[in-house]
Amino acid sequence: MKTNFNFRLLAGAFAVLSLSACNDDNLETPVQPEQQTENLKIDQPNELEKVCYYVDQYWSSSSVLATSLQNSTDTNFMNSQMTKIASLWGRSNPTLRFVNDPSNVNSTYNAISYSTGKIYYGYAIYYDAKSKGGDIVNAMILAHEYGHQLQYIFGLPSVSESTARPNELEADGFAGYYLRRPNGYNQTTFAQIAAAYEFAQSIGDYQTTSSGHHGTPPQRRSAVRLGFLLGQYDLSASSFDYNFFYYYQGVLNGTYKMGKNTQNPELDAYMSQYMDELRKIQNGEISAEEFKDLQ
Length: 295
Ligand SMILES: [Zn+2]
What we know:
This protein is an alpha+beta fold. It contains twelve helices and four strands. Helix content is 47%, strand content 6%. Bound molecules: zinc ion (ZN).
């Protein structure tokens, strides 16, 4: 869900491991790695006999790259979601792989989107999400990670800041959009989506207080809400980006841009009904609990 400050430590810790790994597609170094949680262990054992399992420097040294989860139901669910998410945006699938580490289970509490067209999804995050929130949580996490693929492909987000905040908030928006679209996850009530989002947030960025570059909790709620609202319309990735950032001030601070939305005036008429709501999410008038009950 975000770039983690631990990455630099990790990269350093594993820089000595310049050996090629034994699996088949791990030789590229991601330019902008994407990470779900801060739960990474940075003190992995340096057992050289395990280097054969080495995935890359963003996973533990004992991790194994896999094409399946623990059973075919789970695997099929994720693969079908991957197809659905990519095809929603008119794209063929990226490479979806799973990462397992039986000797250090918690080390796979991550999902990483690579600029080289790959998404690596940890066993630990998959099964924790499934047990706590059901399938929709993994669908949302995957859609968020695929949002980063869209950013790599189309050179998004169109807004840049000194931190990853616009990238992360837009990925949240892409996920909210996917969950609503009829040819996506096809959820018509926001309650289910908000529950999934609250889970994703609780395991990811919610506790981050250090640099504040992932968006505050109200901003992330607003970003998911905005993506969900934009799901009323069938948008290309670049059109989604235009509209997401058109209303970005509503996400950041609850204010409404006064200029005209020239690309989608009818969408703007729809969205204007919700600007007050975004403001209330932002200033806390709509609480985290009430957020889940939005229509
Ligand atoms: Zn992310």
